[in-house]
Design a protein that fits this description.
- With 160 residues, the protein is mainly alpha-helical.
- The chain has a domain at 43-134.
- Helices cover 51% and strands 0% of the residues.
- Helix 3 (58-68) runs parallel beside helix 6, helix 4 packs across helix 5 and helix 4 packs parallel to helix 6.
- The longest helix has 24 residues, at 116-139.
- Belongs to the cornifelin family.
- It holds the Pfam family PLAC8.
- InterPro entries: PLAC_motif_containing (IPR006461).
Length: 160
Amino acid sequence: MTSLSPLLQVTVQSDQDFLQLPVVRSQPGGSVELGEWSTGLCDCCDDINDCCFALWCLPVFACKTTSALGACPCLPLLDCIGCVPPASLAMRATVRQRYGIKGNIWSDCFYGCCCYALSWCQISREMKRRATALSSSHSQGSGLSAAYSPLTSLQGAHLS
């Protein structure tokens, strides 16, 4: 039986130590799970500033939130027409689709009609939390964050 050289024994020992290190399964930071709203419908006190803003000036709050989504800021003013608020319905569906949140048009319609102010607050909180999670993943250098970047679709496009 041959013995190993001291240099080779050290290498084998260090490889064994390396294999015993704990594995990091998720990065720390502001992660938000896909498939669910980050806050419940009635969690308005999670963001007290938006809660008060929506309570005292809901039309302006809805216009500000719609503008932050990239839509026309005056769109929520159409909600006063008819029995189903079209802007609330559209914005809720847009946020669900953009962030991969489970739901359907019937739940959007229910929340838009029966929980109008709460729905707008939830949309605003969701956008803020997703933006915070996105910015923290950018600062950590995550490769997954590029999938959510609005500029991803413009890469390689030639503007004339």
